[in-house]
Design brief:
CATH class of the largest domain: Alpha Beta
CATH superfamily of the largest domain: P-loop containing nucleotide triphosphate hydrolases
Helix content: 40-55%
CATH topology of the largest domain: Rossmann fold
Strand order of the largest sheet: 2-3-4-1-7-8-9
CATH architecture of the largest domain: 3-Layer(aba) Sandwich
Shape: elongated
Structural class: alpha/beta
Number of strands: 11
Strand content: 5-15%
Largest sheet: 7 strands, mixed
Radius of gyration: 26 Å
Distance between the termini: 22 Å
Length: 393
């Protein structure tokens, strides 16, 4: 049995590489002063970017917010009052950024998406602002940059949807309109307004951003655990499909029962998507639980029964391959268990430190037991001649 800590070390290197290679998102967050732009930023994206990120002037009316190692850069408008004339300085600066991007070294940074914020607390639309926004949308559309109108500070979904209908009557030419309340408002349990709409905003962004940015979006957003999970399951499905084709050659491994290489890559991709910083000490217990689970023992026997003739099955300890079917089944089971762990951490139901404690061991043991029961690995354990290869259950 290989050392789980050694595998964890290799997996951490893969996680670092996957995270480093995420395509960066460049986002414009615009709106009048008091429209809730900074609250929106800190409510949607992790790391409290608006509060802890490095903020510097980008132009006279735009500020650049970024953080080292964080694949999201935000260009935020300073407080302004929209003008309808073509010489409006804020609009001119934004259009220049949209049309030409910005140069950093030899790399052109292209704007990925624009969030335009209008406060629903005002209760009515400013005609000048709507004209200003239409001019912005016209250029953004020509550059194939989606504009999402975010109706902030809408105390109830009813208030937000009412304003949304009013906006639609003006033909705003935006890709989507999303009413939100970024944070709970009020302390009285009977009258307090509860936050809503942020998960919808993340979903809309996922529908509008290009495919190369979808993993990055899930990495940086913290508002919708369900969107993270959905993206993670899509990545897992692709990984399973890539290795489970029965026409593929058997997958070589270094030692008996070691993780197939696809699993290290999958765990790295899932961790990068969730945006969770995991150490070797935390990852090792998960890998150890996976290696000690019945999945690897049973799949090893299954792969041998499918790959070798009956008289060769005596050489089980010498086997150096997993069949594609076995690798697919292991990948699905371990991937599903890992997603469930990451989801629990994201929702605050499990701490990273718990994985190293007895509580974590019990959770991991339970998860892998469930995956063993769900997997279809046992029915394939039939020898070449159709004889049953035996079972441990």
């Amino acid at each position: 049995m290989p050392d789980a800590e050694c595998i964890a070390e290799e997996t951490i290197r893969a996680i670092t590489e996957k995270t480093k290679n995420l395509k960066p998102i460049h986002l414009i967050v615009a709106g009048k002063s008091g429209a809730g732009k900074r609250t929106l930023i800190d409510s949607v994206f992790r790391s409290q970017l608006a509060e802890t990120g490095s903020e510097e002037p980008f132009s006279e009316h735009l500020r650049k917010i970024s953080k080292k190692g964080f694949p999201l850069t935000i260009f935020q408008t300073c407080g302004f009052q929209p003008e309808t004339g073509s010489k409006d300085p804020v609009l001119s600066e934004m259009l220049s950024l949209i049309r030409g991007g910005t140069m950093t070294g030899k790399t052109t940074l292209r704007v990925s998406c624009i969030l335009y914020c209008i406060s629903a607390a005002v209760g009515k639309l400013d005609p000048k602002e709507m004209t200003w926004m239409k001019n912005l949308c016209k250029v953004a559309r020509s550059e194939k940059i989606p504009v999402i109108l975010v109706l902030t500070q809408a105390l109830t979904p009813h208030d937000g949807n009412l304003l949304r209908r009013n906006v639609l009557e003006t033909n705003p030419d935006v890709a989507q309109i999303v009413p939100i309340l970024a944070q709970d408002s009020g302390t009285d349990p009977e009258t307090a307004a509860h936050s809503y709409g942020l998960d919808t905003l993340v979903q809309v962004m996922g529908e509008l951003l290009p495919d190369p940015l979808l993993n990055t979006l899930q990495n940086v957003q913290t508002a919708s655990p369900s969107e993270k999970k959905q993206r993670a399951k899509a990545i897992m499905a692709d990984a399973v499909a890539s290795v489970s084709d029965p026409k593929k050659e058997p997958n070589p491994v270094i030692e008996n029962d070691i993780l197939p290489p696809v699993l290290i890559s999958l765990i790295a991709s899932l961790t990068a998507v969730y945006g969770i910083e995991i150490s070797e000490a935390v990852l090792a217990p998960f890998l150890s639980a996976a290696l000690l689970s019945g999945l690897f023992l049973q799949s090893r026997k299954a792969s041998v029964s499918l790959l070798f003739k009956k008289d060769a099955q005596e050489n089980l300890p010498e086997a150096r391959t997993f069949s594609p079917t076995a690798v697919g089944l292991i990948t699905a089971a371990v991937g599903e268990a890992y997603i469930r762990i990451l989801d629990l951490i994201t929702r605050g139901e499990l701490n990273l430190e718990d994985l190293c404690a007895q509580k974590g061991k019990e959770i991991l043991s339970s998860l892998f037991s469930e995956e063993e029961k769900k997997t279809s690995i046992f029915p394939i354990r039939v020898g070449i001649g159709g004889e049953h290869a035996g079972t441990d259950h």
